[in-house]
Amino acid sequence: MKCPSDFTQAGNGFFGPGGARGYWLPAQCAQAPTDPKRKRSYVVLAGPTDGPPISIWDPSTWEYRNGIAGPNWGVALAQVEKPASVIATYERWENGNNLDTPFFVHANISCRSVGADYCCIQDTRTGVYYAVARKVRFFSALGPTYNPPHQEGSNYTFADGHAKWLRYEGTFSGQFSVNPAAIQPGPCVGTGVFQFSLWDRRISP
Description:
By secondary structure, this protein is mainly β. It is 2% helix and 26% strand. The protein has one helix at residues 135-138, and strands at residues 41-44, 57-58, 63-64, 69-70, 73-74, 87-92, 118-123, 129-133, 153-158, 163-167, 172-176, 189-197.
């Protein structure tokens, strides 16, 4: 079965007359997908591939210091100090990453890249760079607002196994020189003061 708000194309749902979102038609629940491009998948939290001086990723050990997974490895559960407040897996509406073609199991494009998956923000109190997933990449198939369909929220699975619905803006807090929710593409590196980030196990609440 598919969620009533899954897409047949950006902006339309699988269920309901004319693909309207929010309908549930039992006769359609068991149907095979008629369109291969519904823009939703589930992605494991990795982190941006930025080494020194940003130091989110350690090229000598392949460690993603903020996330729980990366290419060919996974962090030990004991390394996640607050598993109930660290995102492990999340819904992602991304161009090129679909329900039936889930090619990307993690997102780790450098903060300094034009297609950055994350913002790397240096906390001015500690000098440490922390990561926040970028809305324009997280929901790249949902322009122009980039708001997800579930009342502008998404489902997140945390490292302790529980799941929770949250709006994107509820996954981090702080005052930054860059805005992770801004829709402009491009590199995203800045400074600021963090309260918390569910995207970074080093500063989870």
